[in-house]
Amino acid sequence: MLANLLGVRCVIVKNGRRICGTGGCLANAPLHQNKSYFEFKIQSTGIWGIGVATQKVNLNQIPLGQDVHSLVMRNDGALYHNNEEKNRLLGNNLPQEGDVLGITYDHVELNVYLNGKKILDCQFSDFYHIPPTGFEKILFEQQIS
Question: Are 5 and 25 in contact (CB under 8 A)?
Fold first, then answer.
């Protein structure tokens, strides 16, 4: 794990399978393929967040989701981006210790699954509403191999 992928008070243990401490951590593999899936098992209660972020995110500014560089579901069931609550799980769907959260991401849509059941959608294009004046959908660069 590279140092620039961890918050200063963040520690990775269990052969890279568990994050502890305070701060964020980026995976060491970017999401290049068209459809990506990853998951997290909640080992203990506490304050946490999972989602996607660019390498420009400040991993010491927690909780993540406070800027345009991260989209994060927090332990209270709220999905945050740019310090705005974008969606929220109902109280009876909040993840608990032992639950597994899965994320699918296809550069257009992010979906969150709780123990294999889809619980939340996030759209990156094909919006339900027209974006506010001056805003448009996220443009992704194409990597040429």
Answer: yes
